[in-house]
Design a protein that fits this description.
seven-stranded antiparallel β-sheet, 381 residues, RimK-rel_E_lig_ATP-grasp, alpha+beta, D-amino Acid Aminotransferase, Chain A, domain 1, eight-stranded antiparallel β-sheet, Alpha-L-glutamate ligase-related protein ATP-grasp domain-containing protein
Length: 381
């Protein structure tokens, strides 16, 4: 028999899902437009029936039906196979929260994660300082002034410095400053990383880090961004961490970050062999058999230090063992693997673009079970 708390959780989540429908319709507007203009879609009755079945199964509006072109005549999946595609809302507000419970802050706060990684001796980019609430903080969280921060920048031997929002996803709000004539300049907005800029960003929360010197083998693929390996791990207490999905994220078009939502492309990797797949995919679903900037051919290219990356991912997953699923963004530098960040809600869209419906990979036997809970916290609505 379900408790009052479980039913309360259910009603809160149901109302939350309804309130998020407009958000997802806007977020996936281009896919809905593709559906509207598609001349090769199934009959209206078939589409209506499939949407009804999927909505009943997941208890959410099945926006995934449009993202993955399940409405097209050439879609060969039957309705049971379509059920394997996890809806966005279910992933981010039901599945992942059950995984991280009340520990989501461990991944979402970049400052906190930097401090934890330092204590756990996990290699990460060199951090210069933090800002928050009009304060400047050293990496040991001592108060420092603007001049101290600027001196750290002037002494840096890095070619790039990244200014990242402490709380941020998808590469949003990141500024990249490139060294030129002994100053660090943001090419896009023509901003100099000087004392005035430091005073301005101090109003908000940022982490200021040096760029990583990427290994030459990864530079061959795309040299203008740190191309990261998105390694998604599953940790069950008492067991060894498992790698459930692996991808390579790449910058594109001269961009200096590799996030798909910012214009990057991504390709799956065979977790056992380290071989790249046949095609990379952009967020607009355009596919590439070679990198559009460098003409690097993807199919069956073997990442030469793959075993080292896998071991690194498993090692850090075991150190963050309270969180069941984490998507690790790992760079491979001249000195080996470096953790850029961990994501307690790794993009379900990117995963399913490459691996198809992954319901079974996340051990979802009955979606209805996730709508009731009494032992983990609510994700902020």
């Amino acid at each position: 028999m379900k408790t009052i708390k479980e039913y309360l959780y259910y009603f809160i989540k149901v109302n939350s899902e309804k309130s998020h429908r407009d958000y997802y319709r806007n977020y996936y507007a281009k896919y809905l437009d593709m559906y509207t203009s598609c001349e090769e879609k199934k009959s209206a009755n078939i589409i209506k029936n499939e949407i009804r079945i999927l909505k009943k199964y997941w208890n959410t509006y099945p926006i995934q039906y449009f993202r993955y072109n399940l409405y097209r005549k050439d879609c060969t999946l039957n309705i049971e196979e379509m059920k394997d595609y996890i809806p966005d809302y279910f992933a981010y507000y039901l599945l992942y929260p059950k995984s991280f419970k009340d520990r989501n802050i461990l991944c979402e706060d970049k400052k906190l994660m930097h401090i934890i990684n330092t204590g756990l001796n996990i290699p990460q980019p060199n951090t210069l300082f933090f800002t928050e609430n009009n304060l400047k903080l050293s990496t040991s969280l001592d108060l420092i002034d603007t001049t101290d921060c600027y001196n750290l920048i002037k002494k840096s031997n890095a070619n790039k410095i990244f200014v990242k929002p402490t709380f941020g996803v998808g590469g949003k709000g990141i500024k990249v400053f490139n060294k030129k004539d002994n100053i660090f300049l943001d090419r896009n907005d023509n901003i100099v990383l000087d004392e005035n800029y430091i005073s301005e960003i101090a109003k908000n929360s940022y982490i200021i880090q040096e760029g990583v010197n990427q290994h030459t083998d990864i530079n061959k693929i795309y040299p203008y961004a740190i191309n990261t390996f998105r390694i998604i791990t599953e940790y069950n207490q008492g067991e060894e961490p498992k790698i459930i999905f692996s991808l390579l994220r790449m910058g594109c078009g001269g961009m200096q970050i590799d996030n798909a939502s910012s214009g990057g492309i991504y390709i799956k990797i065979n977790s056992e062999s380290g071989l790249l797949g046949e095609e990379a995919i952009a967020d607009n679903r355009k596919t590439y058999t070679e990198h559009p900037d460098t003409q690097f051919l993807f199919n069956n290219y073997k990442i030469p230090f793959w075993n080292e990356i896998i071991k690194f991912a498993k090692d850090i997953a075991s150190k963050y063992s309270p969180i069941k699923y984490i998507g690790w963004d790992i760079a491979y530098s001249e000195s080996g693997p470096i953790l850029i960040e961990g994501n307690n809600g790794p993009g379900i869209e990117i995963i399913q673009d490459h691996f198809g419906g992954v319901r079974k990979n996340f051990n979802i036997n009955n979606p209805n079970d996730f709508w009731f809970s009494k032992n983990y916290g609510l994700k902020d609505l």
